[in-house]
Design a protein that fits this description.
With about 280 residues, this protein is an alpha/beta fold. Helices cover about 45% and strands about 15% of the residues. It has two domains: about 5-100 and about 215-275, Rossmann fold (3-Layer(aba) Sandwich); about 105-215, Rossmann fold. Helix 3 packs across helix 4 (about 80-95). The chain binds D-glutamic acid.
Length: about 280
């Protein structure tokens, strides 16, 4: 460890998601680690992952990891809760690159934040079905109670740009009712899109409930991971594109969405035939 050349330290970090949602994680990494170059891949042709089986997700993730390896990334962030829940444990045994996901950091933050020991998790069907948030939280403290609720309509609503719409608010009220009744004091936004609904969710849950966005802690974890491996970049190498974006379909739609949530403008997004990998 710590023996890497400056070229290796200057290599990009690979960040991927089933689509645009992982940009909420990428933007947090950009904010906390501005010296790092990123290669982002969004699997826009095959989104959503949240309703798919573990076998399918694992196949998709293996292909994406192989693609990112061709970009000579130095580490990988699985910026998708569903892929983290279903594929990370297997993939980390298969590759040599350092890799992290978003579920563990989110679980850790929530376990530390809760005062009354009652934590809610909202996520896709697949993430809730995996039970991984509960497993990690109770691994930290078995006395913590975890209440999961799948909110499958949130992803399409966010992608339709309806983050401040009464339709989304009505659906959110229905989804969140049962968590309000459980008297949780901490709620994990366990899906990449949900931080974009933060103000709406806060309005329904009230200020007493702490909202946990796993992206923040994931970026901290990435810094630690790079440090431990001697791979932290000191400065972004000159003459190289700092952030590169790849998708499996719909480059223009991706670009428009990305430009609505990222602090800088994306000019080009390249389409990759991910089935080839
Ligand atoms: N990125 C996914 C997640 O965080 C949400 C979108 C999907 O279902 O693919 O779980």
């Amino acid at each position: 460890m710590g023996q890497h050349t400056s070229a290796e330290r200057g290599a990009p970090v690979g960040v991927f998601d089933s689509g645009v949602g992982g940009l909420t994680v990428a933007r947090e990494i950009m904010r906390q680690l501005p010296e790092e170059r990123l290669v982002y891949f969004g699997d826009t042709a095959r989104v959503p992952y949240g309703s798919k089986s573990q076998g399918t997700i694992l196949r998709f993730v293996r292909q994406i990891v192989r693609f990112l390896e061709t970009k000579e990334v130095k580490a990988i962030v699985v910026a998708c809760n569903t892929a983290s829940a279903y594929a990370l444990e297997t993939i980390e045994k298969e590759i040599r690159l350092p890799i992290i996901g978003v579920v563990k950091p989110g679980a850790r933050t929530a376990a530390a934040a809760s005062r009354n020991g009652r934590i809610g998790v909202i996520a896709t069907d697949a993430t809730i079905g995996s039970g991984l948030y509960t497993q990690f939280i109770q691994g930290i403290n078995p006395r913590l109670q975890v209440f999961g609720k799948a909110c499958p309509l949130f992803v399409p609503l966010v992608e339709e740009g309806l983050t401040h719409d009464f339709v989304t608010e009505e659906i959110a009220r229905r989804y969140l009712k049962e968590l309000q009744e459980k008297e949780i004091d901490t709620l994990i936004l366990g899906c990449t899109h949900y931080p974009l609904l933060r103000s709406l969710i806060r309005g329904i849950m009230g200020d007493e409930v702490q909202l946990v966005n796993p992206a923040y802690e994931t970026a901290l974890d990435l810094r630690r991971l790079l440090e431990e491996n001697g791979l932290l970049s000191e400065h972004a190498p000159e003459g190289l594109e700092k952030y590169q974006y790849y998708v499996s379909d719909g480059a223009e739609k991706f670009r428009l969405f990305a430009n609505s949530i990222l602090p800088h403008e994306i000019r080009t997004t390249q389409v990759v035939d991910i089935e080839k990998y």
